Amino acid sequence: QVQLVESGGGLVQAGGSLRLSCAASGRTFSSYAMGWFRQAPGKEREFVARISRSGGSTYYADSVKGRFTISRDNAKNTVYLQMNSLKPEDTGVYYCAAEVRVGKYDFWGQGTQVTVSS
After folding, report:
1. β-bridge pairing 104-108 and 92-101
2. From the CB of residue 56, how many other CB atoms can be counted at a distance below 10 Å?
3. Per-residue pLDDT for 27 more than 80?
4. Main-chain dihedrals φ then ψ at residue 31, nearest 5 degrees
């Protein structure tokens, strides 16, 4: 089991940047691929980005490709989401999650709010 705590959200103007962090407890962080998801008001939660256990492979939703970068530091048990060129449609609660099996995320953080003003 792993506990996840996100931080780094806030209010930013369109075109700005934010860096989200997700700190994991436990000794098995490096055994999980990690993902970032978001949920906008009134919408379903959607996938944003995924990073492999080693960090050598990443995958992004088309809507954020070229603007967001996912990375991880297994020595610090932390996964990051660097968000650049933010748009109002990026507004939402951002969650990190640990992938127990391919496509199945069993452990979730509490989320951090990102608001992008126009």
Report:
1. antiparallel
2. 7
3. no
4. -90, 0
Burial of residue 1 (number of CB atoms within 10 Å: 0-12, 13-18, 19+)? exposed
Tens-digit pLDDT profile for residues 6-18 = 999 999 999 999 9
Q: How many residues does the chain have?
A: 118
95, 111 Cβ separation under 8 angstroms: yes
Average pLDDT over residues 95-111: 94
The upper half-sphere exposure of residue 72, i.e. CA atoms within 13 Å in the direction of its Cβ, equals 27
Concatenated DSSP letters of 104-117: EEEEE---EEEEEE
Closest to 111 measured CA to CA, from 21, 33, 15 = 21
Per-residue pLDDT tens digits for 45-88: 999 999 999 999 999 999 999 999 999 999 999 999 999 999 99
| H or E element at residue 99 | strand 92-101
Q: Strand, coil or helix: what is 71?
A: strand
